[in-house]
From TrEMBL:
Annotated ranges, domain Peptidase S1: 1-168
One GO-annotated biological process of the protein: proteolysis
Keyword rRNA-binding: no
Record keyword Membrane present: no
Keyword annotations of the record: Disulfide bond, Glycoprotein, Signal
Family assignment from sequence similarity: Belongs to the peptidase S1 family. CLIP subfamily.
Annotated protein name in UniProt: Ovochymase-2
PANTHER family referenced in this protein's UniProt entry, alphabetically: ACROSIN-RELATED, HYALIN
Single GO molecular function: serine-type endopeptidase activity
CDD domains: Tryp_SPc
Xref: SUPFAM superfamilies: Trypsin-like serine proteases (SSF50494)
Length: 208
């Protein structure tokens, strides 16, 4: 997990490392922030209330690429790639995730939501990195249960009885298969976003 911090060191969003130079996050997290103050990406973070965690490493951002069709009003294409000022050194606490192949069927898959979000509705954010298992919903079932519009390309996940979900959008979501390997998805994940993400990361890698 990657903790995104304001210039004053306040945590405001989460992300995930996808290469040694790139972080995946939600576009709404950085949409109005890149021109306001510097953003720090902290890798290897666990407890935000402790300032002496030796495993945590801070990185500055040198580029922010939002999806060109991101809509702040609908959260469509809510995805962004951040470029770090230097390459991250991988270790037991800092490691990139696997990106999913095109057309992966996630219906009835159990996903893991991780981050420093609130532990209950309208509650305070957790200072400690947490995770929770949630089932992925069939899209038609998701659309029938929500009062607000749900786009056809959305990925819905949460406990049927409530109480287990992502209290902060932009926190990464992993799907676990039988071999315990993980594949990364955003909470508001769109097919067009995945195509753009692959192209964007490929372009960045070719430039480096």
């Amino acid at each position: 997990m990657v903790a995104l911090l304001t210039g004053k060191g306040v945590h405001f969003c989460g992300g995930v490392l996808i290469t040694d130079l790139h972080v995946l996050t939600a576009a709404h997290c950085v949409h109005y922030r890149d021109n306001l103050e510097p953003i720090t990406a902290r890798l290897g973070e666990y407890d935000l209330s402790r300032f002496n965690e030796t495993r945590a490493q801070n990185f500055q951002l040198v580029d922010i690429q939002e999806h060109p069709d991101f809509s702040f009003s609908t959260n469509e294409n809510d995805i962004a790639v951040l470029r770090l000022h230097r390459r991250a050194a991988f270790n037991s606490y800092i490691w990139p995730v696997c990106l999913p192949p095109p057309g992966l069927d996630l219906d009835r898959v159990t996903a893991i939501v991780a981050g420093w979000g609130a532990t209950h509705y309208h509650g305070l954010p957790s200072p400690v990195l947490m995770e929770v298992a949630v089932p992925v919903w069939n899209l038609s079932r998701c659309q029938s249960r929500f009062t607000q519009p749900v786009l056809d390309t959305a990925l819905c996940a949460g406990a049927e009885e409530g109480g287990r979900d992502a209290c902060r959008v932009g926190i990464p979501q992993r799907t676990m298969n039988a071999t315990r390997s993980c594949r990364e998805h955003c909470l508001a994940s769109w097919r067009r976003e995945k195509t753009w993400l692959v192209e964007e990361v490929a372009r960045e890698l070719n430039d480096n």
